[in-house]
Amino acid sequence: MVTRDFANWPKYYILGNCEEMVSNRISHFLDIHGPSATVQTACSSCPVAVHLACRSLHSEESEVAIAGGLANLTFFNPEGHSRSFDVDAGGYGRGEGADALIHRRLDKALADGDPIRAVIRATGANPDGWAQGVTLPSGEAQASLIKYVCRLT
């Protein structure tokens, strides 16, 4: 079996199949140049990816940015129902999916006549640091971030 006999693994098996390489594989396949990063911050991965895309555009490092996400945690309840706050709770309900958003600087999009679906005025990110637990969001940190981003607009 391939997983037990490392000598028989294809040369680039790990490199080509690790989750961290997804963005680089997409860049390679589509011949996209510029920053390419896979963001893995649990529940905040998509918002952090959008934040990084906006920063790249704002600094004029990029002319176009693609930020996407995939929810594939497989934290399913074996019965298919989450039963939140119930004594029989046992995992999350189904809710997996994928998305991708194309971002451009507003001035460039307007000049090129691109359809504008939304305008992002400001973004921010702030890890909780030491909090109740690594998987529990800090209300205080989230409030601080919201106030910070509102001041930017």
Automatic annotation (TrEMBL):
Keyword Signal: no
Domain Ketosynthase family 3 (KS3) as annotated: residue spans: 1-153
GO molecular function: fatty acid synthase activity
Domain of life: Eukaryota
Biological processes annotated in GO: fatty acid biosynthetic process; secondary metabolite biosynthetic process
Pfam families attached to this UniProt entry: ketoacyl-synt
Record keywords, A-Z: Phosphopantetheine, Phosphoprotein
PANTHER family, alphabetized: FATTY ACID SYNTHASE (PTHR43775), SI:DKEY-61P9.11 (PTHR43775:SF37)
Protein name: Thiolase-like protein
Species: Glomerella acutata (Colletotrichum acutatum)
